[in-house]
Amino acid sequence: MKNDLRQSVDRAFAGAAWDETHARRVISKIEERKQPVMKRKLTAALVCALVLVLASACALAAVFVQRSERSNVVLTARNALTRQYRFTPGMLALFRADAQKNAGGDYTVTFTTNEGIPETLLGVYTVHVNGSTAVASWSYDGHAGDMDHWDASIMAAYLAEDASAWMMGETTAPYHEYALQTFSLSSANAMPTPFTLFTQRPLKEDEVRYDGEISRIVDAGSQDIAQDRAEELGKAALLEDFGLTKEAFEAEGSGLVYATLYQRPNGQRIWDLDWYIPAYVNGIEWCCCVRLDAQTGEILDCDAVTGGIG
Hints:
Layout: H1 2-13, H2 20-61, H3 69-85, H4 89-92, E1 95-101, E2 107-113, H5 119-122, E3 125-130, E4 133-138, H6 152-167, H7 174-186, H8 194-199, E5 207-210, E6 213-217, H9 227-242, H10 246-250, E7 255-263, E8 269-277, H11 279-282, E9 286-293, E10 299-305
Antiparallel strand pairs: 1-2, 2-3, 3-4, 5-6, 6-7, 7-8, 8-9, 9-10
């Protein structure tokens, strides 16, 4: 490009008479020739920059993610919380989602806090999903956010302070410490339910818990999706649900914690994949889990936990 421009300038100046009028004319010609070249150069640079920025997201987004009905409903509900309550991906991962199908075919998705954060502090979010339509509500709607009822703005402060404290080597951050104190008070009188008593019984070495059942760990067979393909599908699902990019998974300290294949009592075989992403990668510490049908690749569950899990 530079050589072409130099040759163009040389040709423009060849045989020129060095009077002031001619000089102005030559300079004008040079500027006319430079403008289109610079515009093309700028356009190409912008295109390259956009390609580089979007490359990692497109790499995962290009993977077709087939979801179960429940998984798709949960994704729709999470998008409703993002739209109505301005949830960030980190806030979404403070809650676990429970989707229940109603008699009319619609769904009610309830978001309750992960273990370690009291429900009384963050409240409960409920999303009614009917096809592509989703409407969310909060148990503390109408109440201003304070240290007793955290809204989205206080959750954002919690996540920011917790990640900052983690990176500085502190064991707890102010918001995190308050949450733990509140949790210890709210859980003091908690009574175990028959369900938790069942799922908390000791497991054998080849057993795992999933969806209220105890399943058996098995070896991958020829009928199962290969682990690397399962990981690719899992990462693509986490990009859709929580915006986690390829760079986050490949950053130093990030990695696959374990990959387990197990078979449910009904014969369904499931890949269970868990990743860890440290706080210094994107400011929030993540533990992510994706479960997918080992034979069809259908995403069954896509979950993440953030906020002082270290």
